[in-house]
Amino acid sequence: MIIAIDGPAASGKGTLGKMLAAHYGLRHLDTGLIYRAVAKALIDAGNRPDDETAAVAAARALDPAQFDETTLKTHQIGEAASVVSALPAVRAALLAFQRDFAARPPGAVLDGRDIGTVICPHADVKIYVTAAPEVRARRRAAEYRAQGKIVDEAEVLADIRRRDARDSTRLAAPLKQAPDAHLLDTTNMDISTAVRAAIDIVEAIRAGRGRG
């Protein structure tokens, strides 16, 4: 079974992805970490995040086993990753990796921004996770504070709005809800409620296909 989860920054898709994978015994891939790793490689090498040639080289040299999630989820890396992910050649370089990951038995949960539309258009289950920008900003600010960082929530909100605009208007695989994806708005949900709602979506689809 392949579950595709898409959504904007801080919508909760990553946490949902991990928990659904654990619930169903599937592998999990946070595809955003791949682009963040490319962005970090560029920054470490002193290159600009919009340097497509350097970004493609970094994408081809990635080793997911070496990913440090804490480092990759900093604000600086996130901003650079949003630029990197808009580069068509980088997306092409990472397409096969993501599809191969999804295809290996017993299946996987992938979360990102183009999983249901581009990476796994034939996924068994597609969920589009969203939440009000203000709520997402509050969540992201809380994450930064938990890391001991001093943050301005208004600035975080402005960053999220910029990323939303950039992700949804880019020419390469823009962020959008797949026509057959189930919308899950987590604005008024805590994580346990959101996970339960996501499981309900999966089970309804499985039952409808005679697999429940």
Which keywords apply here?
5-stranded parallel beta sheet, Rossmann fold, alpha/beta, 10 helices, 212 residues, globular
Percent strand equals 5-15%
The total of beta strands comes to 5
Look at the structure and give the CATH class: Alpha Beta
pLDDT < 50 runs, ≥5 residues: none
Shape: globular
Q: Structural class from helices and strands?
A: alpha/beta
In the CATH hierarchy, the third-tier topology is known as Rossmann fold
Mean pLDDT: 93
- The number of domains is 1
What is the straight-line distance between the termini?
A: 12 Å
Output the strand order for the largest sheet.
Answer: 2-3-1-4-5
Main sheet summary: 5 strands, parallel
CATH architecture tag:
3-Layer(aba) Sandwich
Our count of helices gives 10
Order of helices and strands: EHEHHHHHEHEHHEH
| CATH homologous superfamily assignment | P-loop containing nucleotide triphosphate hydrolases
How large is the radius of gyration?
Answer: 17 Å
Explain what this protein looks like in three dimensions:
With 212 residues, the chain is α/β, with parallel strands linked by helices. It has one domain (2-207): P-loop containing nucleotide triphosphate hydrolases (Rossmann fold). Helix content is 56%, strand content 11%. The chain has ten helices and five strands. It has a five-stranded parallel sheet with strand order 2-3-1-4-5, sandwiched between helices. The longest helix is centred in the C-terminal third of the chain and has 18 residues, at 191-208. The two termini are 12 Å apart.
